[in-house]
Amino acid sequence: MADTFLGLTPRDWQAVGLSLRVSAAGVLLSLPFGLGLGWLLARKNFAGKTLVETAVNVPLVLPPVVTGYLLLVVLGRRGWIGSWLFRWFGLEVAFTWRAAVLAVAVMGFPLLVRAIRLAFQGIDPRLFQAARSLGAGPVGAFFSVSLPLARSGVIAGIVLAFARGLGEFGATLIVYGNPESAPTLALEFYNTLQRPPGAGDDQRLWSLVGASLVLACAALGVSEYLERRGQRRESA
Amino acid sequence: MSLLEFHCRLRYASGFEVDAAFATDAAVTALFGPSGSGKTSILSMIAGLRRPQSGFIRLGAHVLFDSGAGVNRSPESRRIGYVFQDHLLFPHLSVRRNLLYGWRRRPAQARPVSFERAAAVLELADLLDRLPHTLSGGQRQRVALGRALLCGPELLLLDEPLAALDVALKHRVLDYVEQIVNEWHIPTLYVTHNPGDVRRLAQRVIALREGRVNGAGLPGAVL
């Protein structure tokens, strides 16, 4: 097949690039919320904590297309938030790249929060108190003591959520649609599979499988390495 | 008005209750009592790390806590140097950065103790670039003392600083504590269950039992 590099066509590379960008943006968007919620769940007891925990984990157990539909209901032009965004800022979310980013953010959020929560739970809470007694405010103590000590776990969570985002399909299909001009890697795989077989399609499919595997393994490898490095540091 | 006035009640979910009242003007006051008598709880309340259900804590002219008046100053605004029983050095920071953690958070004009002098007195100059996990128990204790000293405290809280040390090291650390008290004149509340430490360091002792004060006065009279 002409114009291929490592078995992928320019269109495939475009899909890989879009998936990487959407995944990175989704994780960046959810990170501040993940940090706050992970710390809160690790450190505080409050009324409704179980409810919050359940709500955070819902995307893990719901069929992704259902999560996508709920996002569409909320973010569509007639949705609760979508109508408001359109009225005040002229901003459309559903069926744009923003929707793909939000789908990735929501689907990866449980993994992100879980890793961050575990990382904070592994830190002696009295170190935070020690920082406070030495003159640091709560925010200063968080950024100078809690966050650096939880760093490996936080990065592992980021990588896991990022990897989850690269493979995101169901929610993305519903809320982003399946635009012919800019599919993500998972959507492009699906489209190729759905088309009547053509010359070279088998090879393309395997190349897309290869690209997905390389990206997923690289992300998991980084996550595993960081987790082990964190454990080594704790036992030192 | 005494230098430190404490009158607080704190009840834990377990049912254990600390209900203690004392006042002191001494340079070194010992909180003396067996394990579980509420010594560390009292230090935590003074440092603002644990909130009493009721009562008041005054340090000089400052009200740190007063349930009646709705005052509860944050830990960072209390200016109290707390040396925890297990040191709680920040494991990701070098000795130097541990020592400077509180010092850097004070305005330049409110740093009564110079970094160089504290490092010299506590013999820390050779340890400054090391990480806490590479230090011995005695070295960690000295870093914890230095860190609390350098945050410019108006009161030092020492929670059983000799608990995990062997006899030879205990005497050296006691020397350091004495030197700190003599050189910088920072009032100190010293938690211990060892009568020998009380006699050597303290001018006044508050004896605690099951969360209550059951004796206060000169070490010779109480012990």
Structure notes:
The complex is a heterodimer of chains A (236) and B (223). Chain A is mainly alpha-helical. Chain A has one domain (10-42, 62-235): MetI-like fold, CATH 1.10.3720.10. Helices cover 77% and strands 0% of the residues of chain A. Chain A is built from eleven helices and no strands. Chain A has helices at residues 10-43, 49-61, 64-75, 80-89, 97-121, 125-133, 138-149, 151-166, 170-175, 185-194, 201-235. In chain A, helix 6 (125-133) runs antiparallel to helix 7 and helix 8 runs antiparallel to helix 11. The N and C termini of chain A lie far apart (54 Å). The mean pLDDT of chain A is 89. In chain B, a hairpin with a 2-residue loop joins strand 4 (54-59) and strand 5. In chain B, helix 2 (95-103) packs parallel to helix 4. Chain B has seven helices and eleven strands. Chain B is of the alpha/beta class. In chain B, the strands form two sheets. A six-stranded mixed β-sheet of chain B has the order 7-8-9-3-10-11, sandwiched between helices. In chain B, strands 2-1-4-5-6 form a five-stranded antiparallel β-sheet, with helices on one face. Chain B has helices at residues 39-47, 95-103, 115-121, 137-150, 167-184, 195-201, 219-222, and strands at residues 4-11, 17-24, 28-32, 54-59, 62-66, 71-72, 80-83, 155-159, 188-192, 204-209, 212-217. At the A-B interface, helix 6 and helix 7 of A face strand 7 of B.
How are the SSEs placed, and which strands pair?
The complex is a heterodimer of chains A (236) and B (223).
Chain A: H1 10-43, H2 49-61, H3 64-75, H4 80-89, H5 97-121, H6 125-133, H7 138-149, H8 151-166, H9 170-175, H10 185-194, H11 201-235
Helix pairs in contact in A: 1-5, 1-8, 1-10, 2-5, 3-5, 5-8, 6-7, 8-11, 10-11
Chain B: E1 4-11, E2 17-24, E3 28-32, H1 39-47, E4 54-59, E5 62-66, E6 71-72, E7 80-83, H2 95-103, H3 115-121, H4 137-150, E8 155-159, H5 167-184, E9 188-192, H6 195-201, E10 204-209, E11 212-217, H7 219-222
Parallel strand pairs in B: 3-9, 3-10, 7-8, 8-9
Antiparallel strand pairs in B: 1-2, 1-4, 4-5, 5-6, 10-11
